[in-house]
# Entry
Amino acid sequence: MPLPKPILVPVLGDQLTRNLASLRGREKDDTVILMMEVWDEATYVKHHKQKIALIFSAMRHFAGKLRAAGWTIDYIHLTDQDNSGSFTGEVARAIERHDPRAVHIVEAGEWRVQQAIEEWPDKFDCPVEILPDDRYLCSIAEFNQWAEDRKTLRMEFFYREMRRKTGLLMDGDKPEGGEWNYDSENRKPPKDGLSAPQRPLFEPDAITREVIALVEGQFADHVGSLDSFGWPVTRDEAEDTADAFIAERLPCFGDYQDAMVYGEDDLFHSMLSTSINLGLLDPIDLCERAAKEYYEGNAPLNAVEGFIRQIIGWREYVRGFYWRFMPGLESDNALDAHRPLPEFYWTGETDMRCMADAVRSTVDNAHAHHIQRLMVLGNFALIAGLDPRQVQDWYLIVYADAYQWVELPNVAAMVLYADGGKLASKPYAASGNYINKMSNYCSDCVYSVSKKTGEGACPFNALYWHFMDQHRERLEKNNRVSRIYSNWDRMGEERQAEYLDSAEAFLETLEPAKDGWARD
Ligand SMILES: Cc1cc2nc3c(=O)[nH]c(=O)nc-3n(C[C@H](O)[C@H](O)[C@H](O)COP(=O)(O)OP(=O)(O)OC[C@H]3O[C@@H](n4cnc5c(N)ncnc54)[C@H](O)[C@@H]3O)c2cc1C
Ligand code: SF4
# Structure
């Protein structure tokens, strides 16, 4: 009897879990798993070298593990001679090779890839089933239903629904401790000498070393260096990172969530985003483990609630938001910002000590922690009026955890307010005072944070008022911002002119980034 035709299961680079909807319940002798390293994905922006190495290494380790467990894996390497360079091309070739009775694929995380997948049923002479990605707590349909009748979308209300849905930190139908959100207890400034225990770094094994050599060879002109590569590339390594976070950093995560310290690249943050986004860790399992620490008295509520909020709140919320507002979100520019990205976003060569440190961490590690991304790099981009498309590309390129579904809402909507306020109730604009309060950057900066205008003044101070003045018509109507204009008006015209002149003079000095880094 001829063997029955198999099911072809393409597994994408950020779907590295045995618990994927397309793999669950499948039999080994009835399945061919297809994994593809393709040029389209490696080059649609010029990703940081560590990001490419991380994804390819994690894919190769995952394939090896499945193969060892008896699964049939068809693995396409980037440099295979006949590699067509695209997912669609590779699935077409795999259909010819395996003559499957159907293709089963889990929906893609990025809009661009999902568009291509949705064309497959018409393109291929073989049934294609596209399954929902049920690794998320909230499906796209559920998010749309939640969003449908609301005038404004706010993460806080979505988050409460997710708390109720999971039962995480719930005491019956009430939130644990009486409050839903302990954000106000997540803002301790760093005390002198604040530093966190070192996160685990993993020595590259033979597979990772081979990938590193590939990336050095093929992507030599991409940003970053691979010398310090230490990312977890397997589930076991990711679990080790999670164990270390929960034991050593979680208790302080809440207090110092918004703190920044010169040279301390990740403080008490978990460093788990790369592993969660690849599929190596289950986000809900992490939240349950964190909640257990609270109930066992090992971590305070402000830490555990803060961590859970980031995952079942922000992470789920931005994913729903992305699918609701794509493809428009990519080209939104509500504040009509057009200034080119400055060169120092790549080199870190600026006298602004906060920016220089955040860019250095970004280039060295393919990572910067949340408050650096939001209140230093993002805040500058907002108040200097940088072009949203260029800023989006930069964030997508430089971070090892960056996939468009999570990067774009954070950048376009949270940081740049380019969506006109669908995500955030007001722009996250701040002067140097905020950075000074939450960091130790300013004491050794060339600029003086207490000086507001003129020679040697912190540029964030004048840029802040320049931004507020430029967008007065729109922001004055926002009752969370309007009172700021009373302060502005009280300054009088002469002082206002000093702020505006100072900002203009600083903006004149910005050197646009050289070509060659961004979208090809
Ligand atoms: C402008 C900007 C761009 C960002 N781009 C990305 C990105 O491309 N990829 C990415 O995964 N995160 C992004 N974030 C969110 C956040 O900064 C990173 O998830 C975090 O810094 C990763 O480090 P960590 O694992 O130590 O996070 P922790 O601070 O330990 O937080 C725990 C987890 O919560 C989740 N999380 C926290 N904040 C957010 C958020 N705002 N949106 C979604 N998930 C969140 C992540 O999974 C993270 O691992 C961005 C934030 C900003 C402000
Ligand atoms: S003084 Fe201004 S530019 Fe310098 S570190 Fe502080 S906020 Fe940044």
